[in-house]
Design goal:
Layout: H1 9-31, H2 39-48, H3 55-62, H4 66-79, E1 82-87, E2 90-98, H5 100-124, H6 126-139, H7 149-154
Antiparallel strand pairs: 1-2
Helix pairs in contact: 1-5, 2-3, 2-4, 3-4, 5-6
Length: 155
């Protein structure tokens, strides 16, 4: 029989689960040759995507300003994870593209996330994990959410 739960515990447990997954991912990414990748960089690389994106698009996808996205892109460029290039469809804009190093970090992340999910399934049981994921899909926005965690917490 489960102990009595309180409403304030749910967001804390969800956040703790999120943090444990993200922290473990980054420990393993560091072990696999990507020690400088931080959560914000991973989210930005996801926002850039395989086809690339402008800084404005990256900002919109992350829920941050173009300037904030530009700073993250600058850091990704300095680390060798992204490059800016002329957009072949519009000479007035720059396109941000992932380098092979950036794509490698995303591929490795996908494999690590699968392993972490398997660990959670072994701990709580695959049926319970599937039910948890299905329930979260029902109560979270279908169109995504802003990843501007720092701005959200900072007010």
């Amino acid at each position: 029989m489960a102990s009595e739960s309180h409403g304030f515990e749910l967001p804390l447990l969800l956040f703790a689960g999120f943090r444990s997954l993200i922290d473990e991912l980054h420990r393993e990414l560091a072990n696999q040759g990507h020690p400088g990748v931080r959560p914000a960089y991973g989210f930005a690389m996801q926002a850039i995507g395989i086809d690339g994106a402008s800084a404005t698009e990256v900002g919109r996808r992350l829920g941050v300003s173009k300037q904030a996205a530009g700073k993250t892109i600058d850091r990704l460029e300095a680390m060798g994870y992204a490059v800016r290039s002329d957009d072949p469809r519009d000479a007035r804009r720059k396109l941000v593209l992932l380098t092979e190093r950036g794509i490698d970090s995303l591929r490795r992340s996908a494999v690590i996330f699968d392993a972490l999910r398997q660990r959670w399934a072994a701990e709580m049981g695959p049926v319970r994990l599937n039910e948890l994921e299905a329930g979260l899909r029902r109560v979270t926005p279908a169109d995504g959410f802003s990843l501007d965690v720092q701005g959200w917490f900072g007010g």
